[in-house]
Amino acid sequence: MEIRKYIAILWRRGWLVAGLPALVLVFSLLRPAPQPAPGYVANMRFSVGVTPQAPSPSVYTYDRYYSWLTAEYLADDLTQVVRSREVADAVAAEAARAGLKVDISPEAIQGSAGAGKLHRILTVSLSWGDRDQLQVLADALATVLSQGKTAYFDQFRKAGTPVELHLIDPPSIGQAGVSLRSRMEMPLRLILALVAGLALAFFVEYLDDSVHGPDDLEAQGLPVFGAIPRTGILPWSDRKLR
C-alpha cells in the first residue's frame, strides 16, 4: 500500500523532517530578529456635514435630505483627501506654526496618515515613532481638517455650501501593537522548514539505492526466497518476531 511506503520513508528520514525545523528554531532563538522601534498611533473622529441653503418660504425643497446625503459622499472623498499631499503640506505648516522644531517632510506625514468612515463619521489615524512629535502633528491635522485649511474645502466655500468637520473625538495617542508580520514570522519559518524537510526526505530516498526490504529487491526483478525477520517498531509492521 502506498501510504505504508510513504510512512516508511518518513520514518527512515525522520531526522531530516524533524531536524530542519529544529535547526531553524534553534537558530531563530539564538539570533532573534531585531525588534522594531516602538511606534505610536493617534486616532481622532470627525462628523461631516454640509451647510444647507436658506429655505424658501414658497417652495418646498428636500435640501436637508440632500445635505445629509452629500455629507456621506463627502466622507468617502475625505478618506482619500486625508492622505493627499495637499493636507500633508498644510499639516507640516501648521505643526511648524505650533512650535515643532523638527523639520518633517510632507511625504512622511502623507505616508503615515490613514482614514476610514462610517456614514458621516470620519475616523483619521496618524502613525509616528516619537510620541511628542505625534501629539503636535495630530493636533495640527485636527486643526487643518476642522478649520478647512486646504483648497479642497475652499471650493465648497466658493460654491456657497461649505463643508463642516466637527471634531467629536480629539486625538488620542496609544502605542502601536505588534505587526502581523512580526507575529507570523516564526510560524512561517517553521512551516517552510517542515515543507523543505519533507521534500528533502523524499529526494534523498529517491537518490538512495540501498535495499531496505524485500520489496526493493522485487522491484529490481530479483527473486526473494526469504527474509530474516526483525522486531517491528511500528504497530502495523509485517515483520514481527513470532
The number of helical runs is 9
Topology pattern, helix = H, strand = E: HHEHHHEEHHEHH
Count of individual domains: 2
The percentage of residues in β strands lies in 15-25%
Structural class by helix and strand composition = alpha+beta
Detailed description of the structure:
The protein is of the alpha+beta class. It folds into two domains: 2-33 and 181-212, no CATH class; 40-175, 2-Layer Sandwich (Bacterial polysaccharide co-polymerase-like), CATH 3.30.1890. It is 52% helix and 16% strand. It is built from nine helices and four strands. It has helices at 2-12, 14-30, 63-81, 85-97, 106-112, 131-147, 151-158, 180-207, 214-219, and strands at 40-50, 113-118, 121-128, 163-175. It has a four-stranded antiparallel β-sheet with strand order 2-3-1-4. The chain is elongated, with a radius of gyration of 34 Å. It starts with a helix and ends in a 23-residue tail after the last helix.
Blueprint of the fold:
Layout: H1 2-12, H2 14-30, E1 40-50, H3 63-81, H4 85-97, H5 106-112, E2 113-118, E3 121-128, H6 131-147, H7 151-158, E4 163-175, H8 180-207, H9 214-219
Antiparallel strand pairs: 1-3, 1-4, 2-3
Give a nutshell description of this structure.
The protein is an alpha+beta fold and 242 residues long.
List keywords for this structure.
single chain, 242 residues, alpha+beta, Bacterial polysaccharide co-polymerase-like, four-stranded antiparallel sheet, 16% strand
